[in-house]
Design brief:
Distance between the termini of chain A: 55 Å
Oligomer: heterodimer
Organism (chain B): Alkalimonas collagenimarina
Low-confidence stretches of chain B: 758-770
Strand content of chain A: 35-45%
Distance between the termini of chain B: 14 Å
Keywords (chain B): Cell membrane, Membrane, Transmembrane, Transmembrane helix
Helix content of chain A: 10-25%
Structural class of chain A: alpha+beta
Number of strands of chain A: 13
Pfam families (chain B): MMPL
Protein name (chain B): MMPL family transporter
Shape of chain B: elongated
Number of domains of chain B: 3
Number of helices of chain B: 24
Radius of gyration of chain A: 20 Å
Membrane topology (chain B): Multi-pass membrane protein
Strand content of chain B: 5-15%
Structural class of chain B: alpha+beta
Low-confidence stretches of chain A: none
CATH class of chain A: Mainly Beta
Radius of gyration of chain B: 32 Å
CATH topology of chain A: outer membrane lipoprotein receptor (LolB), chain A
Shape of chain A: globular
Mean pLDDT of chain B: 87
Largest interface: A-B, 48 and 54 residues
Chain lengths: ~260, ~775
């Protein structure tokens, strides 16, 4: 119960904070939002992409297992993006396809096509914090970045991968998120995410994502070739490799609806 | 040589005291390195096969270290609104437990349901605000039928519910981590208990076990050690009838204990449930040395010798016996190095070091202290007169004592072999401990408290989706269910059956395994996509889905029954599904095996210790004949002791498995003292009868006094709430008493009957110092 006492003392202390500190906090939040907005703005207007993804899962003993999938994405300017993921490996889920309409304000909509039953099922669940394909990524780590989903606070500057970065704290607005907060390193040169620390609901470091080998596409958009997620609590890790990144595939809304899901192979 | 140190101790006592103090300080400085470990792993060496199997399973699947909280409302109904709300609140709060990775309860169970063409995946109780009559009925219905919940997280009668908190300890400072996590949960229970005075909370799980190990050790350290001091001081004052002699003894004890703990620190030995009682044991043994010195000195003072002469008299007579008895006692404790249990090895080594330190201090520091302290002539005590009477009795009645004693001993000793090894970690704790009461409650009202994990490996990537494999796993889980000792089985096949039913519009007819591999795989894909953080299937499926873990919850069995169950299950698996790789592991299983393994190794070392100790006796007495006589009083007490134990309890745990070795080392002392005095009597030209009387008179009282002190010491140990310690104390104390009886009745009777020609055989040079 000591913790509760500490918390109440802290909150009492916060009330007594002088106005200048409050103003400082406001400034940090404004700066955080500015950085996040710039990050979003710089990654707007790319249209659509298709990418082949390979996941290499490792357990505490270093044993590996692979998952393969393709992801088609359509940018939606006034709402969350639409994504269609088609599973290729392991073989017994080949042809399964997962369609998401990311929403900014309401829960995302999700459908799953299972070739073995040849039917589309809508998944009604608030949960998006569980492991994606048994990996160290959660579905929420892979869905599109939307400003409305978080509150932002600029913390300080730091250097990662030789890039000078802003370090911004992101607090998820969704109570069903698996995280209490994330600390994000965004490079100053191109506003690309270099690293994310995820904190679990008891505010312990859960896992760390590092993003590697950014390449420039269409002279404007940066996409990474490799992402590494390392779990700090159970020593498991997952490497995510992106290959064959293609832009301007000419996708439309029709490629991201129920019918498209059944056609996907 | 002997003259030199003795003279320096007597003529320049302050010099002796100074260097003893410096030595003590140097050694005791090591106490800063001491730390405490309370986790169950201290019972197992790093190459213990059951622990390796367990750790491999923990690595392949997620760790299963846990805290279980059982919630028992007086109303006897966990499904009323108040209780469901409490369970929901506790579940939510439990996620804040330090190092927790998962929390399971009936409220956050991921219930799946078909809704038209949709699959709904949601907490069984998402929000207590929705608790209508209908919702409560549904929660009850699901809880009572869902295999994952029924008799695991809710009792069969719906009167008790449980919350299971899984933790992933970083194992940097494991003891502290256990305390942090467990005390957090205790705090939660206390908080909710205050709000709900009509609800009882009980705690179990691996962390509760670790915590209990640590807290019982702490209790022993804070209650038994001071109690021991008190008892010893009282005994000394009473028996030695001299407060100053008692003071000298207490100083020796303190110096010995501080040095022993310091040496342990320097050697990197940690304190644990076993070694925390080393001070008690060392104290007891150190007292014996001092008593011999002081009693002899008092004897000499009564003879009218000066203080210095009396000390000199006592030292020349006692130095060799003290040295020999310390060596034999150390050997007894050092044989614990052959134990399978690391902390028992530590106990042996620390005590052996302590005994040797006590020997050094009692022949150097003790005479120096006695030299400085005033000494008065202590009147002859009743025991001394009693000894004379006893000697007369034995001399007169030895022809009766011998056959009666022999028959009695053999009759009782014959039962020794009927003892059974039984090691159940839970049973290490006395029924008066909170941990034991919690487990007994859960065992009686909710589910078993022992787990056994089985990993079944299909040897193929994605093999768990194979219908043939699933059918086999389901058959095994059915077989487990049919075993009378099993209360619950957690198997992935239940998830597949449920999903198959959901995908067929919740038609109960489809509550069965999917019949194609891709179907099973895709159900699982869909389900996994819908699970929240911490409630994934990684605790049941490995990385590439080639293997699954089935957890059977069992009633708390004896170790023989548990290993028997393991054997039965593994041979069933080998027979029914030889194509798959199967293994079993759990902490309960580790304890079940360690008892047998340890007993086996300890029994093997016993003859070795006996030969070594008897050999030493032969050398020190320089007589094969007396060495042969010594075998009876050395072997019989332990045999008779274990015989009595068989009649009293019949169960042997880790603590008792070492009693034979350590008691051998201790009881040999009596024999050494008695026989060396007997021998001296013969050398001084007495008859067998005269020599026996001489032995009685010169050493009988000291033996009686040391026995009383030793028994008091081990009786204090017997008061521990931790049975490894209390049983060890009880049986060792009993064996020491038996040893005294045998030494004072049977040994002289034997000598009187068979050592008629003793006098002529002795051709020991008169220069011998003993």
């Amino acid at each position: 119960m000591k913790k509760y006492l500490l918390h109440s003392l802290l909150s009492l202390g916060l009330c007594l904070l002088p106005a200048s500190v409050v103003a400082e906090q406001d400034a940090a939040m404004a700066e955080g939002l500015r950085i996040a907005t710039e990050r979003k703005v710089r990654d707007t207007g790319w249209g659509d992409t298709e990418v082949v993804m390979t996941m290499i899962l490792r357990d505490a003993r270093g044993r590996e297992s692979r998952r393969e999938m393709r992801t088609l994405t359509l940018e939606v300017l006034d709402d969350g993006d639409k994504a269609l993921t088609i599973f290729d490996e392991p073989r017994d889920v080949r042809g399964s396809a997962f369609l998401t309409h990311t929403k900014t304000m309401v829960p995302d909509e999700q459908w799953l096509f299972l070739p073995a039953v040849n039917r589309v099922r809508r998944i009604v669940s608030r949960n998006k914090s569980g492991p994606f394909m048994g990996s160290e990524y959660a579905y929420e780590d892979l869905s599109s970045f939307e400003l409305e989903k978080f509150s932002f606070t600029y913390l300080h500057d730091d250097e990662v991968h030789g890039e000078l970065c802003y370090v911004v704290e992101q607090i998820p607005q969704d109570e069903y998120s698996g995280y209490s907060r994330m600390v994000v390193w965004i490079d100053k040169s191109h506003y690309r995410v270099q690293k994310i620390d995820y904190y679990d609901r008891r505010d312990s470091l859960l896992k760390t994502l590092t993003i590697h080998d950014y390449k420039l596409y269409k002279d404007e958009f940066w996409r990474a070739d490799r992402m590494e997620m390392v779990n700090a609590q159970n020593q498991k890790s997952t490497t995510l490799l992106m290959t064959d990144i293609q832009f301007d595939r000419g996708f439309t809304d029709a490629d991201f609806d129920n019918n498209a899901l059944q056609r996907a192979r | 040589m002997q003259q030199f140190w003795l003279n320096s101790a007597l003529r320049r006592p302050w010099l002796t005291i100074s260097w003893a103090l410096i030595l003590t300080l140097a050694l005791a400085a090591g106490m800063g390195q001491l730390y405490f470990r309370g986790d169950y792993r201290i019972f197992f060496s790093p190459d213990n096969p059951q622990m390796l199997a367990f750790e491999q399973m923990q690595n392949e699947f997620n760790k299963s270290d846990n805290i279980m909280v059982a919630i028992a409302p007086q109303s006897g109904d966990v499904f009323d609104e108040d209780m469901l709300t409490l369970i929901w609140q506790f579940t939510e709060a439990a996620w804040q437990t330090p190092y927790s990775s998962r929390v399971d309860s009936i409220s956050n169970f991921q219930h799946t349901e078909a809704m038209d063409d949709d699959l709904l995946v949601e907490d069984l109780l998402l929000n207590p605000a929705d608790l209508t009559e209908e919702k409560r009925a549904k929660i009850r219905a699901v809880s009572m039928t869902e295999p994952a919940l029924y008799r695991s997280l809710v009792s069969a009668d719906g009167a008790v519910a449980a919350i299971n908190i899984t933790v992933q300890l970083p194992e940097v400072d494991q003891n502290q981590e256990v305390v942090d996590a467990y005390e957090y949960v205790l705090g939660l229970s206390a908080y909710f208990a205050e709000k709900h005075p009509d609800v009882e909370f009980y705690h179990a799980g691996i962390l509760a076990l670790n915590y209990a190990f640590a807290s019982e050790a702490e209790k022993d350290a804070t209650t038994l050690v001071p109690l021991m001091f008190l008892v010893i001081i009282m005994m000394l004052v009473l028996l030695l009838r001299s407060a100053l002699a008692a003071l000298a003894t207490v100083i020796i004890i303190l110096v010995t204990i501080l040095s022993t703990l310091g040496v342990a620190g320097w050697l990197g030995i940690f304190l644990s449930t076993a070694t925390v009682n080393v001070p008690t044991i060392v104290m007891t043994l150190a007292v014996a040395d001092c008593v011999h010195v002081i009693v002899s000195m008092q004897y000499a003072l009564r003879q009218g010798k000066s203080k210095e002469e009396a000390i000199h008299y006592s030292m020349t007579r006692n130095v060799v016996p003290i040295f020999i008895t310390s060596i034999t006692t150390s050997i007894g404790f050092l044989t614990l190095n052959f134990s399978e249990v690391p902390i028992l090895r530590d106990l042996g080594n620390m005590t052996a070091v302590g005994v040797m330190l006590a020997c050094i201090f009692s022949v150097t520091l003790l005479p120096a202290l006695l030299r400085l302290l005033p000494a008065k002539v202590v009147p002859v005590s009743h025991t001394a007169k009693g000894m004379d009477k006893l000697a007369t009795f034995v001399v007169q009645q030895h022809r009766k004592i011998l056959p009666v004693g022999a028959v009695l001993m053999v009759a009782v000793a014959a039962f020794a072999g009927t003892n059974q090894v039984n090691d159940v970690a839970v049973k290490y704790f006395d029924t008066r401990t909170e941990f034991r009461q919690s487990l007994d409650f859960i065992e009686e009202n909710l589910t078993g408290t022992a787990n056994l994990d089985f990993a079944i490996d299909s040897q193929q990537t994605s093999g768990v989706n194979n219908p043939e494999f699933l059918a086999h796993v389901a058959a095994f889980s059915d077989w487990l269910h049919q075993q009378p000792e099993v209360t619950h089985v957690a198997s992935i096949t239940n998830v597949f059956k449920r999903l198959n039913k959901n995908m067929h519009g919740d038609d109960p007819a489809y509550y069965r395994l999917p019949e194609q591999q891709d179907l099973a795989a895709q159900y699982l894909l869909m389900f996994e996509m819908s699970l929240p953080f911490g409630l994934d299937l990684n605790n049941q499926l490995n990385l590439d889905k080639s293997a699954t873990r089935i957890t059977a919850t069992l009633q708390n069995l004896g170790s023989k029954e548990l290993t028997g169950f393991e054997q039965r299950a593994l041979s069933w698996l080998a027979e029914e599904m030889p194509q798959y790789d199967a293994s079993a592991a759990s902490t309960a299983l580790m304890f079940a095996h360690i008892g047998e393994r340890n007993m086996e190794s300890m029994l093997k070392t016993l003859p070795f210790a006996l030969i070594l100790i008897s050999g030493l006796l032969v050398i020190s007495l320089r007589s094969w004949r007396l060495g042969l006589f010594s075998l009876v009083p050395n072997i019989m007490p332990a045999l008779v002791g274990f015989g009595i134990w068989a009649l009293y309890s019949g169960e042997i745990n880790l603590g008792l498995s070492v009693v034979a070795s350590i008691s051998l080392g201790i009881i040999v002392d009596d024999t050494v003292h008695f026989l060396s005095k007997y021998q001296r009597g013969l050398q001084e030209g007495q008859t067998t009868e005269g020599a026996v009387r001489y032995a009685f008179n010169s050493v009988g009282r000291a033996l009686f006094v040391t026995t009383v002190v030793l028994v008091a010491g081990f009786a204090v140990l017997a008061m521990s709430g931790f049975r490894l310690n209390s049983d060890m104390g009880l049986l060792t104390g009993m064996i020491i008493v038996l040893a005294l009886i045998i030494d004072l009745l049977l040994l002289p009777a034997l000598l009187l009957r068979f050592d008629k020609k003793g006098r002529n055989d002795e051709k020991v040079p008169a220069t011998q110092s003993a």
